[in-house]
Fold:
Amino acid sequence: MTSRTETELVPVLDSTNVDLWRAIKRRDYRYDEAFVFGVRSTGIYCRPSCPARTPRRNQVAFFLTPRLAERAGYRACKRCLPNDKGFATLQRTRIEETCSFINQNLDRRLGLAELGKNANLSPFYFQRLFKRIVGLTPRQYVEGVRLRCAKMSMSNGDSVRSAIYRAGRSSTSWLYTNPYAKLGMRPSAYRSKGKSMHIRYSIHNCRLGKLLVAGTDKGVCAVSLGDSESILEASLRTEYSSARIVRTDTSKLGSWISEILAYLEGREVVPLDALPLDIRATSFEYKVWRELQAIPYGSTCSYSDIARRISRPKSARAVANACAKNPVPLVVPCHRVVRSDGSLGGYGFGVERKTSLIQREEENLKRAKAGKANEDRVFS
Ligand SMILES: [Zn+2]
Structure:
């Protein structure tokens, strides 16, 4: 009975709709909740993001819901499971399993084909899904884990050579070719890095997913956003591998967290630049991060703007790298930096979150200005 109402009230999706077709061609997962499509030649229907081969345009029919597709005689695809509400969870589990597979198999070559096969996905689709869920490509993730593993064994006192061996690499050049870019300091400096940090962290739900905030007695040392608590925790623990880390709900962190949550959730302008920070960086990174904090709430600038402001006009790329290494996003607002052509550029927590942060700031600022104008009118 409900399905009857559905067909009557719901407009039939126009089979010439260009946007929907484009979503299928791009395998655009953002449309996954919006519609499904049936393929006449096979009698199967799929989600827009289905990894299977793209059908011919003239074979495709669009449906608003899986039920409508089934009523038109189509069967659900076994690869993208369009009628399965647990699909998103299943995909997440596959990717989380891949991450732990990577963590345990650093000593071998970890190619895209093998990783994809493990996750039961085509290499292409696997790569995109991984990027979407983890925020890094599989390759970047593998490199990152290797690097953290090397960092960890160096800060435990291992020699550089054996640290590299432990990380599944045989040549020291891997670490030395560009040690500054990778470690932020020389390998030898990393080895002697203090083990005395005492870090507390806690995790909260917010409109952009899970928010992790970590800090020492001196200030905030890590902020991250994501979908999975375990991934957020793991990356904190590997980034600060030699520190003492405990999860907490109270302590000094409390007021810092409520400020960050007020910034994220609130309808008012909450600048975070007064929060104390306890972060380590190269002098170049410090310069860049200070400039980021100087970008006013609600506005954006480009990587080359920042490069000019720190008198390194040719270093836009290095500026982008420093932004990517910012350990305290939101507080050091790297989301306010966009490309010179106005496009958004990347963001460690995903471009959608970046868009949302920028939009919310613009709205809040507009509202604050309008409120101010009203007050002026009343009192003048
Ligand atoms: Zn499918």
